[in-house]
Amino acid sequence: MKPTLSKQTIVNVFEGKASPLQKSLVQEWLEVPENQELYFQWLEEWERDNPQFFPDQETAYRKSLQQRQNPATPFLDEAAEGKRVRSGRYIWRLAASVLLLLSSGTALFFKDELLYRHYETSYGEIRTFTLPDESRVVLNANTTLKIPRFDLSQTDRRAWLSGEAEFSVKHTKDHRRFVVSTPDNLEVQVLGTEFIVYSRNRGSKVVLNKGKVQIRLKDQTAPPLVIRPGDVVNLSRQGRLTLRHQQPVSQHGAWKDHRFIFNNTTMSEVASQLTERFGVRFVIRDSTLARRTLGGTFKARTPDEILPILCDMLNLEVRHGPDAPDTYELISLP
């Protein structure tokens, strides 16, 4: 039976006051997955209650210039030196917490759960989350988002997205940027605004609802692309950015209501969207059918809610693979 520990025992670990027996009990306690998340929650609470201070780099730079002119001038004053020492102590405490988790024998570190919070949705699922900075994010189906657990840099707020999400970013008092990165090196930079980011195998897309957004490719030196409300930017798989102005941006967020909006959309594109949303596979062997277009708005939470409608509209038949129940073959009827 795993020990039940008090919050104070865990806090003693953060403060470097835990005895060898307490550390051993904490290691056993951390073998329970539910306790690992509680451990991080208490660590973040302790960090907020015990704010750490970092050196003022600008002040240090000015003092370094003074030192060149007057070697007797110390590089850092006592207050700055005190900040440096406190920062070092904090890093050691954080490192001790990391080592404690590693020594517990869990696989948490190898899934990078240790350093990042993960927000995920499964196929057909849409969820809303509030981030630690009070920004709000709505995740479309089959989407993952991760953000750092520990805010040590005190510079940008960073997030990594794979899938599709709508962000409502809260502007902070210190004007820290919120930066979203995608697997194809697209980087979206904002201070506080509302926008949608799509990033899947078929490419990436940014849709701006409010405010102003800067977009850049991390592997290019070109200046960031600035977009404004109503703009939609697409990044192709070949790495080419396309900007369109005055777009009906509300259509790009129809997925929040489990809706599909097709506007002269080819059946091959319709099949791709259904695959991304529901995780099923579509087979269209007839190239003529693949090029047929469809228009209209459809609400569906599962493939079975939309496929009968498509069959009636386009005179199709749907066949299930006997050995692959998640595979649908679309066939034109005579």
UniProtKB/TrEMBL annotation:
Say which domain of life the source belongs to. Bacteria
| Alphabetical list of InterPro entries matching this protein | FecR, FecR_C, Ferrdict_sens_TM
Pfam name, any one: FecR
Task: Write out the transmembrane intervals.
Answer: 90-110
What start and end residues bound the annotated signal peptide?
Answer: none
Task: Pinpoint the Protein FecR C-terminal domain residues.
Answer: 259-319
Q: Does the keyword Membrane apply?
A: yes
Domain FecR protein positions: 119-214
Alphabetized UniProt keyword annotations: Membrane, Transmembrane, Transmembrane helix
Q: Does the keyword Membrane apply?
A: yes
Q: What is this protein called?
A: FecR family protein
Native organism is Larkinella insperata
